[in-house]
Amino acid sequence: ARARMAPGPAAALLQALGLRDAPQGAPKHRPVPPLMWRLFRRRDPQEARAKLRWTPPGATLRPCHVEELGVAGNIVRHIPDRGVRARSPEPTSAAGQCPEWTVVFDLSAVDPAELPSQARLELRFEAAEAKAGAAGGWELRVAWAVEGVGVGPVLLRQVVAALETPVRAELLGAAWARNASAPRSLRLALALRPRAPGACARLAEASLLLVTLDPRLCHPLARPRR
Amino acid sequence: EAEAAVSGGPSSACRARRLYVSFREVGWHRWVIAPRGFLANYCQGQCSLPATMPGPGGPPALNHAVLRALMHSAAPSAAGLPCCVPARLSPISVLFFDNSDNVVLRHYEDMVVDECGCR
């Protein structure tokens, strides 16, 4: 499957650009996340030059570093959750049991040579429930989801004060080792419970922001001329 | 959209010429979100003596290129002129959808020709 290439003279260029084949096109109903726009505008030298009118030669951004996120990297991916159907449809507060969700992230597009530097889980909750809040905050639990078995070992627990803004959890170091390649896919079981008795929240959207560094795209800094 | 190189005269010297690469033109506009295109530029022009080596304000020519141009002026049949090639390039970032519907931002080095030189 990896050998599949786009026909024509563009194939070699696509491969050089790190793409196995030409994507089919923009997916329907998939808006570009505002964060990705912000990162693009900040990274793009031509855009920066257009804004600043004049940029001294060589005055480019720090190479192989994503300034806004504060980590090394030259590839940022916004990966949507594929596990929508696995979610519990309705929240229930009976007996303090809130629903759990299974989220699945397809990481097969990540090349094994890429070194992950950030894997940020981002969760958005239904607006009405997020605004209602819980007096003592929430506890987010992230565990491995094992097909046919249910919930596997817990990866992290995190206290969340409010749900109005996206809830974020860093998975690098918890879901897989910092110096290891990303897995082909990530299947997680999520649970969010109010710390004091209260209503459950409903998950609206889950995504993974993955930053990687491909050393092949990162040229060493030019040495000063002697 | 490329600037035409003029043959003869000082404008035919090796230098960066304007070339705008449009992703629509190459058929990538359905999955490249931004930019719509970029000023890639290209190098064209002669690397003959004396005017173009080294170019005013441009990068110094390699010693080998100077000697090759000297040799060409003395004995044109012995060797061709040096090549006019990119001497300094800069990166661009591209935002696109991949085949897994991920939104990807990649930073690519060496995509824009800033300066040309005789090599």
Mean pLDDT of chain A: 79
What is the tally of beta strands of chain B? 7
Counted beta strands of chain A: 10
Q: What order do the strands of the largest sheet of chain A run in, or round the barrel if closed?
A: 3-10-5-8
Q: What count of helical segments of chain A does DSSP give?
A: 4
Tell me the distance between the termini of chain B.
26 Å
The global form of chain B is elongated
* Main sheet summary of chain A: 4 strands, antiparallel
Oligomer: heterodimer
Q: Kindly report the greatest chain-chain contact and the residue count on each side.
A: A-B, 41 and 34 residues
Radius of gyration of chain B: 18 Å
Structural class determined from secondary elements of chain B: mainly beta
Cα distance spanning the termini of chain A: 49 Å
Strand content of chain B: 35-45%
Helical coverage of chain A, percent range: 10-25%
Blueprint (SSEs and pairs):
The complex is a heterodimer of chains A (226) and B (119).
Chain A: H1 10-16, H2 34-43, H3 45-52, E1 65-66, E2 71-72, E3 75-80, E4 100-106, E5 115-125, H4 127-132, E6 138-146, E7 150-160, E8 167-170, E9 185-194, E10 203-213
Antiparallel strand pairs in A: 1-2, 3-10, 4-9, 5-8, 5-10, 6-7, 6-9
Chain B: E1 15-17, E2 20-22, E3 32-34, E4 37-39, E5 42-44, H1 63-74, E6 84-97, E7 103-118
Antiparallel strand pairs in B: 1-5, 2-4, 3-6, 6-7
